[in-house]
């Protein structure tokens, strides 16, 4: 890869959302914004190797895309009212990136995020639109990530953009009273993207999708940077960073998933851990009651603070899970809490707490039961639980881990 290629790749990651957001605000049309932004990047690919990288790549791309958008409106709406609008646009000063205040650009990006995650759109459409318009991923990339046919994914994005246009969904940050609910939806979409990368659902794909986790972290940084006072935006970013830091140790050389207690902690990314811990401490210092993502981040901070799994402060982990249960009394949270209970009060107490949880179709439930039964010496029951977990698991790396654990249970 040449130096220019590297610059183009970096600029695409850094500037795509800015360019699309600026165009969407100026022209009020996501199709025009997306397509002319893509054309501007294609022009850069052609010209920058010969002409050199401009001093302000983002401003150059925005100006180029703006010109292309005006030309497109002229072509498609000649001798119509839109043609006159295009002429008026052409007479206004063109965007030149460097002259635009950073706050305005950042605000445009925030508007774009909230538009893509509008509650009027179905959640799958929000995910796809966010990855395409804000993340700059291609339709094939998104389709592969979420096991959807490209044509289906393309139609999903097209319908979402059409709904935004026909329903008159405003391209703006929600009002103060609507903001908390809308931020919750945005963060949920980013968490869905991250989770698909954390453990891919496609058995034909690698167990961990670093491309998706990296993109989710990048988008979470964007939202946190735009809403620095929002505790849950900070909490989600901290949570992602602390989980992402463990990615180098999560899959063995043989392709088997490695459980947290067995991971090589020396392979963890200490830079990400330090950043995640700093975010957690900053939120604690505010004295404000934490939300769900902040508590999850705090739990992961305890795990990543321990030099060895034997050093884990399970009392603190359990106290945090007790706090989380009050915020989210879901069966999955109770399942995870039981893991901490097992470390403090023993597997028998934890096993009793799993009874009655409606999680028969959830393979981590059976994997947890299997491990607790193994520790109690109930090998036959443990193997049966492992069989159920293996049958439900979709990821080959996770299956490999469970098969090995089952064999150990049989041997024990």
UniProtKB/TrEMBL annotation:
Entry-linked Pfam families: DUF6596, Sigma70_r2, Sigma70_r4_2
Protein name as annotated: RNA polymerase subunit sigma-24
Region entry Disordered, spans: 81-102
Residues in RNA polymerase sigma factor 70 region 4 type domain copies: 114-164
Keyword Glycoprotein: no
GO biological process: DNA-templated transcription initiation
Organism of derivation: Kitasatospora indigofera
Family: Belongs to the sigma-70 factor family. ECF subfamily.
KW Transcription (keyword) present: yes
InterPro entries: DUF6596, RNA_pol_sigma70_r2, RNA_pol_sigma70_r4_t2, RNA_pol_sigma_r2, RNA_pol_sigma_r3/r4-like, TPR-like_helical_dom_sf, WH-like_DNA-bd_sf
A single GO molecular function term of this UniProt record: DNA binding
RNA polymerase sigma-70 region domain ranges (all copies): 18-79
Gene giving rise to this polypeptide: rpoE
Keywords, ordered alphabetically: Sigma factor, Transcription, Transcription regulation
């Amino acid at each position: 890869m040449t130096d220019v290629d590297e610059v183009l790749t970096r600029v695409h990651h850094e500037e795509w959302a800015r360019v699309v957001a600026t165009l969407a605000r100026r022209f009020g049309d996501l199709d025009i914004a997306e397509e002319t932004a893509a054309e501007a990047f294609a022009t850069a690919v052609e010209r920058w190797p010969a002409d050199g990288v401009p001093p302000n790549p983002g401003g150059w791309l925005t100006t180029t895309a703006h010109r292309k958008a005006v030309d497109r409106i002229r072509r498609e709406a000649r001798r119509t009212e839109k043609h006159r609008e295009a002429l008026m646009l052409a007479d206004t000063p063109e965007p030149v990136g460097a002259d635009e205040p950073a706050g305005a650009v950042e605000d445009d990006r925030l508007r774009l995020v909230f538009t893509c995650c509008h509650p009027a759109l179905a959640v799958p459409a929000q995910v796809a639109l966010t990855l395409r318009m804000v993340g700059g991923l291609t339709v094939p990339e998104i389709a592969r990530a979420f096991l959807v046919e490209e044509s289906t994914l393309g139609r999903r994005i097209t319908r979402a953009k059409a709904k935004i246009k026909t329903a008159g969904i405003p391209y703006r940050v929600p009002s103060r009273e609507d903001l908390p609910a809308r931020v919750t939806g945005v963060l949920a979409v980013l968490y869905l993207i991250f989770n698909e990368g954390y453990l891919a659902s496609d058995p034909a794909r690698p167990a961990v999708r670093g491309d998706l986790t990296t993109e989710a972290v990048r988008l979470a940084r964007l939202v946190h940077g735009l809403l620095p006072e929002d505790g849950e935006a900070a909490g989600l970013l901290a949570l992602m960073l602390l989980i992402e830091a463990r990615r180098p140790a999560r899959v063995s050389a043989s392709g088997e998933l490695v459980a947290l207690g067995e991971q090589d902690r020396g392979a963890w990314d200490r830079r990400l851990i330090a950043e995640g811990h700093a975010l957690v401490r900053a939120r604690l210092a505010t004295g404000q009651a934490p939300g769900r993502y902040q508590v999850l981040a705090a739990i992961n901070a305890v795990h990543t603070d321990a030099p060895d799994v034997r050093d884990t402060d399970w009392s603190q982990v359990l106290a945090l899970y007790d706090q989380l249960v009050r915020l989210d009394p879901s069966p999955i949270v109770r399942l995870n809490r039981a893991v901490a209970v097992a470390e403090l009060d023993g597997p028998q107490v934890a096993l009793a707490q799993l009874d009655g949880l409606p999680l028969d179709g959830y393979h981590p439930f059976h994997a947890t039961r299997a491990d607790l039964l193994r520790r109690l010496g109930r090998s036959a029951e443990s193997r049966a639980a492992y069989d159920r977990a293996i049958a439900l698991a979709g990821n080959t790396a996770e299956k490999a881990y469970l098969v090995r654990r089952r064999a150990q249970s049989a041997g024990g």
